[in-house]
Amino acid sequence: MSATSPLAETWAIGARISRYLLDGVPAAALDATPSGKGRTVRDQFAHLHDVRLLWLKAARPDLMDGLAKLGSGSGADHGALAAALGASAAAIERMVADAEAGDGRVKGFKPHVTAFVGYLLSHEAHHRGQVAQALRLTGTPLDKKVAFGMWEWGVR
């Protein structure tokens, strides 16, 4: 799906950064958690997808066709996580583009769609940081190319 506006495109870039990070996580590190409790790296990515679905269900349930929650402890591999993140990102992108073309609002979120995108980008960045920290603390730091590549928004 191509972005229909700079705001929808901004969301899509941020979502691709989350996917880029997932692609940089070794399969053996998906179950990493720094303290032995809390969300694993795998669960962090599932959480991103599930929060996107939470907003879709509240604001645009018509965009939920074919989307299913992953949940903590899902055991989803890289492929399943990537597919879920891709599908939920596309649905959010559509919701953002439609909101912009409409009244500029997302049902259940105040004040407007631009703030909604800021909220989601902040949420995802927070969890990307948690993933990077978990990997570092468990002895599998991100490859420098991936760590720096997350900031290359012009090419992602």
Task: Characterise this structure.
The protein is mostly helical and 156 residues long. The chain has a single domain, classed as dinb family like domain (Four Helix Bundle (Hemerythrin (Met), subunit A)). The protein contains five helices and no strands. α1 (6-23) runs parallel beside α4 (113-137). The radius of gyration is 15 Å and the shape is globular.
**Given the structure, what is the number of helices?**
5
Structural class: mainly alpha
| Net shape | globular
Quick one: how many beta strands?
A: 0
Order of helices and strands: HHHHH
- CATH top level is Mainly Alpha
β-sheet strand percentage: under 5%
- Reported by name, the CATH topology is Four Helix Bundle (Hemerythrin (Met), subunit A)
Q: Please identify which CATH superfamily we are dealing with.
A: dinb family like domain
What is the averaged pLDDT score? Answer: 94
Distance between the termini: 15 Å
Q: Domain count, please report it.
A: 1
* Largest sheet features: none
CATH hierarchy: architecture: Up-down Bundle
Provide the gyration radius in Å.
15 Å
Q: Care to give the gist of this entry?
A:
The protein is mainly alpha-helical and 156 residues long. The protein has one domain (6-149): Four Helix Bundle (Hemerythrin (Met), subunit A). The chain contains 5 helices and no strands.
